[in-house]
Amino acid sequence: FFPQVDSANTGRVLASDAAVFLKKSGLTDLVLGKIWDLADTDGKGILNKQEFFVALRLVACAQNGLDVSLSSLNLPVPPPRFADTSSPLLLSGAASADVPWAVKLEDKAKYDAIFDSLNPVNGLLSGDKVKPVLLNSKLPVDILGRVWELSDIDRDGMLDRDEFAVAMFLVYCALEKEPVPMSLPAALVPPSKRKPVSVPGAMPLIPSSLSAKESHQSLPPVGVLAAKTPLTQ
């Protein structure tokens, strides 16, 4: 991966080049920012080979639902995956039509019933309607924020029936003490949201045009909850 980013063979990688490359991991800007801060130890905006390896390792941790922290660096994880034809490793078979959806039929029926009980408008639920259901799980607000971010696949600030099922699935996983992943695994992307992509077997999980500002605007005010509601529990 390093020669791909350091094409001039200078032994270092500039922030701008690294950002373009790391975005292909499908992780959110927020997570990539954290990875950069940990890898760029002296804060110069340049990574040497060793620091770039740290960034790659943290990408792999995030893609496998592990904490993005230096303490995760020695944990065994598969190599990071990047959606790019020239990568040594393609996102193998990600979100292709043959991957069965992780949400089982009987669970989907249960989630659909909850969805309908929340009075969707034109088949969509706003963040305000979903928020009480999420809070009811008593999960930490930052986890719920990530659940929302992963389930609002088309980034419109609303959840349709399939996206709501993804949100519920992630909530139940978190309640079973399973870590909520940093990016949506291929098997969790609803079949209705799977787009044919030009790169065989690869699926960009975030639109590259989406700036951090825009993605924050589409999030419901789950993050501000802590400030508004004293979470006594």
Automatic annotation (TrEMBL):
Residues 1-83, 107-195 form the EH domain. Residues 27-62, 139-174 form the EF-hand domain. The keyword Phosphoprotein does not apply. InterPro entries: EF-hand-dom_pair, EF_Hand_1_Ca_BS, EF_hand_dom, EH_dom. The keyword 4Fe-4S does not apply. Pfam families: EH. It comes from the Eukaryota. GO terms for biological process: endocytosis; endosomal transport. GO terms for molecular function: cadherin binding; calcium ion binding. SMART domains: EFh, EH. Keywords: Calcium, Metal-binding. GO terms for cellular component: clathrin coat of coated pit. PANTHER family: EH DOMAIN, EPIDERMAL GROWTH FACTOR RECEPTOR PATHWAY SUBSTRATE CLONE 15, ISOFORM A. This is EPS15 factor. It comes from Crypturellus undulatus.
